[in-house]
Structures are given as C-alpha cells and as structure tokens.
Amino acid sequence: MSAHYTLNLRVFWPLVTGLCTALVCLYHVLRGSGGARAESPDGADGGFPLLKAAALLLLGYVLLRCRHAVRQRFLPASPRLGGHSAFSPRSLREPGLSILLESYYEHEVRLSPHVLGHSKAHVSRIVGELVRAGRARGSPGPIPGGALALAFRGDFIQVGSAYEQHKIRRPDGFDVLVPLRLPPLVALEPRSLGAEPALAPAFRGCFVCALKAPPSPSPSGSSGGHWLKECKPFADGFCVDVRGRRHLSATLVLRWFQSHLQRSLATVRYSLEGSCRVSLTPGGLEQPPTLHILPCRTDYGCCRLSMAVRLIPAVHLGDGVFLVAPLPPPLPVGPLSELPGGLRTEALWGVNTARQEQKLLSWLQERAPPGACYLKCLQLLKALRDLGARGLDPAAATQWGRILSSYVLKTALLAVLLRKGGPAQGWDEAHLGQCLEELVQFLRDCLLRRHTLFHCVLGPGGAAAEVGPLPKVLREATPVDLLAAFDGQSRELAAVRLLSTWRRLPQLLRAYGGPRYLARCPPPGSQRTQGLPEGEP
After folding, report:
1. Is the bond leading into 326 cis (omega within 30 degrees of zero)?
2. Is 218:148 a contact under the CB 8 Å cutoff?
3. Which residue from 300, 346, 344, 382 is spatially nearest to 108, judged by alpha carbons?
4. How far apart are CA 104 and CA 514, in angstroms?
5. DSSP label at 5?
6. Could you tell me if 423 and 413 are in contact, meaning their C-beta atoms sit under 8 angstroms apart?
7. How far apart are the first and last CA of the chain?
8. Which regions span the lipid bilayer (predicted)?
9. CA-to-CA distance for 158 and 413, rounded, in angstroms?
10. CA 460 from chain center: how many Å?
11. Distance of CA 216 to CAs 188, 403, 482, Å?
12. Which residues pair with 276 in a beta bridge?
C-alpha cells in the first residue's frame, strides 16, 4: 500500500530561516576572505545591500507564515458545548485519525509487557519483605503489644492501573494496599455517610467505623461494660469520639502506619542493598506514605527503573472490600469545613473496591468480541487528558487532573460499557476513533450534568450482579456522584477544555507523537473518501 506524507510547517519554516541565516553567514565568510576582489568605482559594495534587503524580506515573510500557521493549528475557534458538530470536524472523521492514534499509542502510550512484568515482580518482592518484617516486629504505637495491638495482617494487595492492564507510558508508579489486623476483642460497625443531608458532596462517599463487641463472646465471658474497659487502651490510642461513640480514627491509624513502616524499613534495608536502594517518604495526613525504589549501581538487570509505590493502610470489611486512609480524591480545595452533626474529619474513611472493579473488567473481557479495544481506548483517553494539560499554569493543570482523574476516566468507560451490556461489535480496532469519541461525548455530558457519573459499585444501582457478593453496608449505600465535589464553573471549563483538546487532536498527535515530523495519511481512493466532494467526511 502506497502512502504519501504531509509537510509539517512547524518544522519547515524554522528550517528555511536557519538555511537563509547560514547562507548570509557563508556570504560574510567568503566576502571577508576575498581580499583580491575588486571594489566598485565609487567605493561602495552594491551586492551586499541587495542581499541584505532580500534576506530581511525573506525573514519577515517567514515570521508572518509561522505566526499564521501557529494561529491556524493551535488557536482554533471555541468549540460549542452542544451539538454533534463540536465532535465531528472533518479531520476527526477521516481514516487518517486512526493511523495517528495507532502511531501515538505505539510510541507514547503503550507499555512494554516485558518491562511492566519485571517492574511488578520487583515491587512485589520488596513490598513483601517489608510487610513480613512489619508483621514480625509487632506494634510500636501506643499499645506496644498483646491482644489489643494493631498489626500488619501479613499480606498485601496490588491495585491500580498497572494491575488492570491500562497503565500508560512508564511503569514507575504503583498502589499497594496493606491490610491491618484488628485486635480479636474489637469489631467494627461501618456506616456510609451518603444519606447525611448537610454533608458536602465530596464526603458522601466516606464511611465511619464505630467500635463494637465481636459477635462471639470474649474469652473471659465479660459483659458489655467490662468489654469497653478491656478495649480502653486500643480506643484511647486509635479512636475518637463521634456522637457519643468511639470510632476508629483514620488519622491516628495512618500516623501509626507510617511510623511502623519506618521501623520495618530499617530492618530490611541492609538485606536489599545488593539489589536496590529504598527510602520512605511520609505522606502526612492527605497522602499515604510512598516507598521509593532506586536501582543500585551494581544492578545490571534489564529493567533499571526508579519506582514509587504508594503504601495504603486498609481495614477489611469483607468480600474483598477495604476501608482506606487517607480519603481518596477528589476532595474540596482548601481547608475542610467543619462537618455537621458532631462528625470529625479524623474519623472519615474512604472505600476501596479495586477487587470488585477487577472482577468487573474480567466479566467484560469474557463477553468482549475478539480484538476489542476498550482498554486501549481508556489508555488513549488518559493520554488525551495529559495532552489537554499542556500549556496550563500549575494550578489549572492540577484542577484539570483532579476533575479528569484516572479513576473518573475508568468509571466513565465502565458506565458506557455497562449501559450496552458489554463491549459490542463496534468496539474493535477498526472503530478506535469512534469509540474514543463516544467516551469523550459521555464525559462532556457528565461534566455538564446531562448524565451523572455514579460510582460503579456503591449503592443499589452498582454492578453487584457482575462482581459477586458485597458487604451489606455497600449494597445499601447511597449512590455517589464522582463529580459532585466540583462546582459548576469548574466543570464547564473542564468540558470546554476537553472539547478543545478533542478538536485539536490530529494536530496534537502530530506535534507530540512518535515520528513527529511526518504523519501518514490514508491512500487516495480509500473507502471512506472516494467519491466525496470537498468539505464532506
């Protein structure tokens, strides 16, 4: 199949300018070395002023062309928020878009399975040693040991895009849940805050956990009052009062978790010196601690990457569902307002349903036709978000990333697929551009409140039938809108930015893609373009 190439003006005009400059410099060199050259009768050089004027005119012409090209390619008209025309300019519906997407995916988005596999194995080995050391050390916190000590359960759970086959670019960031073991005399009574009427929307996906006696009687056969007295050391060390009851504090547990990790890392650091260098960065009260893994100078492995692993303390609720600290994003910008009804921010826990989401992706994979590209669409949607952040100031880029977080994008994909009962025949490589356009349309509608982007597991409308049994507290929880934490203006600005990025997608792919300076176009006479007049798809 023959292919022709389009000229990239962003490279061509600077190249012409540089060539003209080189010619002028060459003229000066030759003029300076020609000492025997005869001068004109009046003592003036008639050739150089003419050449200089021509060079100035050419330079002005080049600058005008560059300015015009930049305005045409990177400052298009503002897209309209409604109507099909905002999504279907001719450049987005021609077959060349699929070629550009495929090229960009291969060069900028796709991860090497070999490198990803090595990275996951390396993370698993190091985190496994750290967790085993933490379990063996016991609790260094307010309760030094015994039946009421908080401790590591001894295992860890790998979650996130790296383990769901949709991570992009580099395998340098991972998320790992570290389950904690509660004392045998302590049980939890979790409760969703979704039904709290005066609560800010960002907190309606949070949970609180009150302490209660375990279902089976304590070994000493004590009464309720005696049980509270026995559990007092644990309650004083890890709980806060909420509405007259003791609740497990996410802040106190996170503080203990970071301290325990530091002590455990000191135990295993020497044994890891031969293969890597490890360090731990505390995350404070808003981020979990991060384990940094740096390759050792004497490590001659094939995949020498620096990696960051977020270690997230987790409390198991049952059926693979965990409460995590600190709260996952999105959170309101600025200081947290005082919670109503005696609630305290220290007692708020987030919920992690990564196991259920992995089951949901597996359920979709079983029903997907051969060659389905929905995970590839999700990866390209993340890349589209990253392209849209280019040119923004740091504050605007942070807000853009918070609104269109990777979790929001994954939930949007799951919502689109579940509405259709799974990936249909149209979700194949031949329709990659159309599938990506459908996702962008759905996101636009969610940002403009035409659709609501609910959590895919929480509440009675979640995908409980596809992911198996869920704890009762999750089945009865109020559905959570993932975008409710953002005000209308922020959402509308994000929708405008999303549409603008989508309309400029061919130009952005050519500018930031792999073979950057030449973009292949479909051959003449292809099925989509043959016989169509100018201006039609």
Report:
1. yes
2. no
3. 382
4. 6
5. E
6. no
7. 22
8. 12-30, 46-64
9. 21
10. 27
11. 13, 45, 38
12. 295
231 sits in the region (left: phi over 0; alpha: psi -120 to 50; else beta) called alpha
Where does residue 285 rank: exposed (0-12), middle (13-18), buried (19+ CB within 10 A)?
middle
Neighbours of 293 (CB within 10 A): 22
Tokens representing residue 17 in the block: 């300018």
DSSP state of 429: G
Instruction: Report residue 35 as tokens.
Output: 């000492």
- How many CB atoms are closer than 10 A to CB 279? 11
Torsion, CA 519, CA 524, CA 528, CA 534, rounded to 10? 90
382-431 pLDDT, tens digit per residue, is 999 999 999 899 999 999 999 999 999 999 999 999 888 777 777 888 88
Q: What is the spatial distance between Cα 387 and Cα 462, in angstroms, rounded to a whole number? A: 31
Q: What angle do CA 79, 107, 429 make, to 5 degrees?
A: 70
Residues paired with residue 190 on neighbouring β-strands, in sequence order: 209
Rounded CA separation 262/260 (Å): 5
Q: Where are the alpha helices (DSSP H) in 168-275?
A: 224-230, 232-238, 250-272
- In the beta sheet, which residues pair with residue 159? 175
Q: What distance in Å separates the CA atoms of residue 439 and residue 413, rounded to the nearest whole number? A: 7
> At 36, is the secondary structure helix, strand, or coil?
coil
Distance (Å, whole) CA 255 – CA 267: 19
What are the pLDDT digits (tens) for 295-319? Answer: 876 555 556 778 999 999 999 998 8
State mean pLDDT over 206-215.
87
Neighbours of 219 (CB within 10 A): 9
User: Is the CB of residue 167 less than 8 Å from the CB of residue 376?
Assistant: no
The amino acid at 80: R
Q: What number of H helices and E strands is found in the chain?
A: 17, 14
Q: What is the DSSP letter of 106?
A: I
| The model's pTM | 0.76
Structural tokens at position 399? 């807000």
